[in-house]
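To: structure desk
From: M.T.
Subject: fold request, one chain
Message: Could you run this one when you get a chance? Sequence is below, nothing fancy, just the single chain.
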Amino acid sequence: RTLVNRAFVSRQVERLRPRAEALANELIDAFPDGPFDLLPAFAAPLPIAIISEMLGVPAEMGPQLLDWSHRQVAMYMHGRTRETEEAANRAAREFSDFLRDYARARRRNPGDDLLSLLLSAQEDGERLTEDELISSVILLLNAGHEATVHQTGNAVRCIVAERDAGRLDPASLFAEAQSAAATVEECLRFDAPLHMFTRYVYQDTDFGGGIEVRSGDRIGLMLGMANRDPNAFERASHFVPGRDDQKNVTFGAGLHFCIGAPLARVELQASLKTLFSRLPGIRLAEPAQFGDTYHFHGLQRLIVDA
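Reply: Done. C-alpha cells follow.
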C-alpha cells in the first residue's frame, strides 16, 4: 500500500486538474440540443479518460478499459450468475495480459505515467511484484471509475434540487477553489456512491449495551448512515456546503482509507465547477431514479436539459 500510495499523493494528482477541466469543457461542448442523459455524456467519460492518461495508454483504449471494468464489477452485484462470473474472469485475464505487456514496454521505456511510477516505486529496497502491480492497477480502475461516475450523478441531482428550492446558487459555490472543495465534500457526505463496506473483525470487542463482536466475524460498515449521524453532524439530513463539522467517511478511515481519494476529489471539483460555471441553469428533464443495485448507490439515468 505504501508503494502504491506514492502515485496518488495530492501533489501527484493535482497536476491533473487542468486536464480534467479541459476534458469537462470538451464534453460540455459536445452536449446535444434538447434533453439527454448526463451520465454517459459527462459523468462516465471523464474519469475513464483521466485513468487512461494516468496509465499512459492511448485515449482510444478508454472504452476497452471501461468494458473490462464493467464486466469485473458485475461480479459484486446482487444476483450474479455463472455466466456473469465467467465473463468477469475473462475480463480479468484480458486486462491482466494487456497490463503485463504494457508493463514490459514501460520497463524498457519509462515515462511519467502511473505504471512507470509503480514500477519504479520502492520502500526499504522492496518493490511491487508483477502480480501486485497488476492487481493494484485493476483495483484502481474498478474502484476509481464506477464510484466517481455515481458520485457525479448524485451530486448534480442534489445541487440542482437545492438550487431549484432556492437554497443555494451553484455558480457562487464553485466560484473559488475553497468553496468548490467544501461543496464536493458535502456532496460526498450527503449522497455517497457507496453506502456499505464489509470488514472482518481482528479481535474480540465489546461495545457495551450487549453489542459484542468476535475475531473473524464479518461486519457491515454503514457509511451512508454514518454520514447522516445526528450525533456527528448538525442538521445531518440537510445539504450544507461549507459546514464546520465536515468529517464524512465516504472514503473510509484508518488503514483502509481510499488511496484514490485525492484523484476523486480533483475530478469531482474540476468537473462540477466546469459544469455549473458554464451551465448554471441546467435542469432535470425528468425525475431521477436510483438504480436497484448492490453495492453502488447511483442513478440509472439523469436526463437533463442544458
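Reply (cont.): Residues 35 and 284 are 9 Å apart (CA to CA). Let me know if you need anything else for the meeting.
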